[in-house]
Design brief:
By secondary structure, the chain is an alpha+beta fold. It has helices at 16-19, 28-40, 80-87, and strands at 44-51, 55-67, 70-74, 91-96.
Length: 98
């Protein structure tokens, strides 16, 4: 296991995952462009829907294409995810590099 960090070693200025969330200096257009560059290099997204009487359900989804802020995922039209979406349109999408 790596050594634990001390409180002094962790801050929004030294942790890139936190620093980018609170970046007020980089223009939004550049932040969005950086996100698109990152997302365009990925092939798989994780789509989470809310299933009635069960709760969140997530599955890997192949990314077909992106057009602006819209992502097209390849899906089986007969899968349960479409019933989930009819019930609740709320989704969470994450991306993974695998």
């Amino acid at each position: 296991m790596p050594e634990s960090l001390t409180k002094e070693e962790v801050s929004s200025k030294t942790d890139p995952s936190v620093a980018k969330q609170w970046d007020r200096e980089t223009p939004k257009s550049e932040q969005i462009s950086d996100f698109y560059k990152l997302a365009d290099g990925l092939k798989v997204g994780l789509l989470a829907t809310n299933r009635p009487n069960i709760g969140p359900v997530a599955r890997s989804m192949a990314i077909g294409k992106r057009s602006g802020p819209d992502f097209l995922f390849i899906a089986n039209n007969h899968s349960q995810k479409f019933s989930d979406l009819e019930h609740d349109k709320t989704v969470m999408i994450t991306f993974q590099n695998s």
